[in-house]
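FAQ
Q: What does a multi-component entry look like?
A: The components come first, one per line:
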Amino acid sequence: MTRALVLTVIGAGDAPEDACAMARDVGREIASRGAVLINGGRGGVMRAAAEGARSAGGHTIGILPSYDRASANEFVEFVIATGMGEARNAIIVASSDAVIAMAGEGGTLAEIGFAKKFGRPIVALKSWPEIEGLDRATTPREAVDLAMKLAACSRG
Amino acid sequence: MTRALVLTVIGAGDAPEDACAMARDVGREIASRGAVLINGGRGGVMRAAAEGARSAGGHTIGILPSYDRASANEFVEFVIATGMGEARNAIIVASSDAVIAMAGEGGTLAEIGFAKKFGRPIVALKSWPEIEGLDRATTPREAVDLAMKLAACSRG
Amino acid sequence: MTRALVLTVIGAGDAPEDACAMARDVGREIASRGAVLINGGRGGVMRAAAEGARSAGGHTIGILPSYDRASANEFVEFVIATGMGEARNAIIVASSDAVIAMAGEGGTLAEIGFAKKFGRPIVALKSWPEIEGLDRATTPREAVDLAMKLAACSRG
Amino acid sequence: MTRALVLTVIGAGDAPEDACAMARDVGREIASRGAVLINGGRGGVMRAAAEGARSAGGHTIGILPSYDRASANEFVEFVIATGMGEARNAIIVASSDAVIAMAGEGGTLAEIGFAKKFGRPIVALKSWPEIEGLDRATTPREAVDLAMKLAACSRG
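Then the predicted structure of the entire assembly, as tokens:
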């Protein structure tokens, strides 16, 4: 069995509507290419990306910080209740083939740090200009195209 | 969206063939009832249960101890690379609605301990007579029937 | 630098007073032999063992399940806030040279499971008759003597 | 018991000698003020900071990524073997009252992200100009003075 590529979209858990709209588009693009979406399973960018992916028939996995499976948003198909708090960010990144980073705060920065550590390709979507060494995109479609290409290379 | 029930089958990573045959049957029964199989994603009972579940068209999730996604067995559909070692047993149990326990050693005992801690129903399949307070079954079908019933109750 | 031996005492977080008295004695015996006490840092057996160890001038480390350092009992000298929930039991055991097990429930059982998995010597103090392969003791002094001896062997 | 303040020094695991010399000075300053040093317990900046702290009679705690306690550097007094890989960075930060950040790569960036997430004061010592919202220092003494002051405020 060849496994589908797995992408994560990271960003603020309390994002404004325009960011959520962009995240929904990213999720839809991911699913429409047959890739799986994995992320933190909560609100904001996480919820919107999962909504987009489900709307296009894709699989979604939510890696929760708590043991409370009911805290997953409704668009998470498979709930992983880590109970390990913010350290679950390392699991999200390690389980992905590539990372699409939107604007966010400390948690998002930690995920970018882990992606660098683990050697995962990172595509910054209109965000994180201050961090060196990221690939850049300005639209959801461009971000997912690039992330898919880099993910395929990286998996070999 | 109502999520499918999630069951885990725990047991030895280097189980003999008769144990693996039983695990395959358990996996098949789980999938045939529409439930998702989650477990540790490695060999022995984990591999056999996933093989059975996939053969019946079910979804399988493997929660690996390492960051090495290539260490997942071929029947794991969704690979979660925790990198958190044996502590990943807590995640497996916390992400399940019920546990089916086969014979095993320290890792399996730790999972039974977590299931008690988290209040997850545990069905011992021809194993663990020395541990009090477990439900008991003698065939894969009986174990899965009982686990599904208890899981549905427990989720409410 | 040769590091001091590290022992853990595991048992119920809501233990009755006679169990706590026994745990205090165990903690005192550990410290009086120059060993470090590590455990879960909360109440019951954990608190009592730490109290005993501090009363004899020993070092105590508490590995908390949450990020809330204020939840450590007052006898924890060094607080490690794991935020990783019950999975922190694996860290406690992995960081110890030997385990002294008193009566307990699911969490304690998980720790015994991890100790078997990690090959750490386990001394059951008037408890866990149903688990095979543990060493046995009937008094705190006997338990600590045996645990220290096994720990020293095991570290080599 | 009032617990001593706990500081962490983060930076590259394979730092050049001038960075290590600076980390040693930071460790010494931390210990000379009675604070405890906690960090990742491996090489480079981690080892040098621990060496400095021990040389001034301070306590040092090493939070290892693996289960291999022998991988701790010789200046770690208390070894915590998490076995949880890079996710252990969250534990280091959560267990600290303040963070002193030196130059580093992905792992260090993840720790800065967690410190922001957890609301821990961060003092950047001649490093990370691209990250907003950090306090700044140019010498080890200045960094430790500032970190101690912010840590005391933060703990209340």
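Q: Is there any commentary attached?
A: Sometimes. For this entry: Chain C has a mean pLDDT of 96.
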